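Please predict the structure of the following assembly.
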Amino acid sequence: MISRYSQITTIAAKEIHDAFRVHLLTLLTGFLILAALVSLSVSAIALHAEYLTYIESRDLLISLGKSAADLAPPAFFPLKLLRGFIEHIEIIGAVLGIVLGYRAAAVERGHSTLALILTRPLSKFTFLSGKLAGNAALITFALAVTFAIGAVALAAISGVGLGVADIYRIIIVFGAACIYVVSFFLLGFALALSIRKLPTALLAAFAIWLALVLIAPQIGDTMDPDNQVAGGVFRTLGVAKPEQIEILKSFKTYETVRDGIEQASPAKHFERFSFAILGIKDIYNGLPIAEVVKERIVDVWSLLAFLVALAGLLFLRPLNLTRLTKE
Amino acid sequence: MTSRSLSIFETARLSAFAAIKIGLRDHTVVLLAALFFAMVLVSAYLGWSATGTVNSIYAKAVPVLQAQGKPVPANPVGDTPPLSLFRNMVTYVALLGALAALVLGHQTVAADRKAGVVPLLFSRPVNRTGIALGKTSAIILAVVAVLAAAGFINALTMLVLPGLSLGGAVWLGLIKFYSVSALYMLAFGLLGAICAAAFKTESMALLIPVTVWLTLTFIVPQITANIGPMAALNPQSANLVAPTGAFFTLTSSILGPISIAESYRYLASSVLEITSGAGTTTTTEGALMTLAIANLALAWAFVFTMKRLDACRSNYRD
């Protein structure tokens, strides 16, 4: 009798082999790397353009005999260039997870091997664990390549070598990205093992992705009272900061609902955590890693809760093989 | 008894009716359309909520400003153009509307391929151009019907909300917004239909157009104007000033003509008066031209793909 561990590693190894054979992983990872590199390069070009504008303005002031002391030079923090990179992981990384999850189920359903596998001395738990282990390894590999290329490109484009602390920060964000993308793998996989028609499962996963990754944060942002008038409602009315805080106290329920909508999005938690760790959000820039992690620990727990909830859905829901046979 | 060959128009009419019936029976299409309507209602609620919140803030700010002896400005709600209440619709059309259209276009062709009727159909004296035109007409009708219903919900919302001045220009603006949205959604409907006719598997036929949509929505705006992926969802981004420099001048002139997502955002935001358009180099005519050319090119590509569809192949795998 083959041990459960051996069964899991065999299934995981087959997943990895299959993923490389059909080039799906290569294509999607390539797309993610391309998007990330475009984002990094464009951010660097924009920063360079900003710097040239500053030099031009400074020289003009000096030529007019005025002081350029009040003209603030553009701030340069290399890790801030990763803003678009993180947003692409949020959007395209989630798509990578969904597609891998869909493929992991579709390949068995399409070849009608799902029922056959489960007639063998192999438990549902072992089968699902093998699939999860193989695809989690693939996702970790794909993200490791993306982050490594991103880090090298960041150093090359910015012309500033990354310090040890910077590399630690990137590794922590890489870990959060793995949890985030594996969660979307679980979503795609669970739906493709539950819904009778495979293309419907893929579209349902995309609809949930749209709602969680793109629509929920956008609704939360739109409901921000200060975003409802161009230029900000308080600025338009000329209300000072202390009075703003006082007025907003009477909108506590409204703010709770707004924050709740944003909190429902795992993408927002990944973004908030990553932006804090990398110092993209100004208030965290320069703070020690431990302090930032402590302050944003709620985002880590939320990402883990999302992962565990989807894993629970996958492992606890019974597999209806009659429903999942090929049409 | 001999069978007569149908004219291109008869073929198109029959093909359009069949495609509409199939679309109405398809749960995925209906589900996505329902989700789109739900977001139309959310957009209406957000418009109502925005008005209510700003009114409440104004009511609380007036005594504060008076106590400080400061001048009390007019309520900003009065300066807000009525159509700007629906600014979220720009995002929902660009996300859900495009995805729903893509699936609808896909289903008009995929249903025939999955049922295995393509070899039978093409063995008859039918005009393939007529079939493609019929399916295109079905996509147009479906997109127009969905958007007309969405427009009706928006119109009701405006009538219910107090304090809005609704002149002829506002209603014309609403019609213009949905006309531009129809052009945008139609482009994705045609793309879905092309991929369903061109690819061997249904998964690839869905995945490829989704990748194209991702590229147009999130990557191209970054290259042409340094608009980040998340910022691209904000209709206000149509008003962002692209960084100066040779790079952005070059990329916007090369990629601008194919950037239908940016063209749509610019046109829709201008019509809803949520942008002055001052920050862009795009013009209304240029953006309209981009959308129109994209639709014509995709329609031609769809006819071409249908003509090239292998009449001997009946299988269309998952």
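The mean pLDDT of chain A is 86. DSSP finds 14 helices and no strands in chain A.
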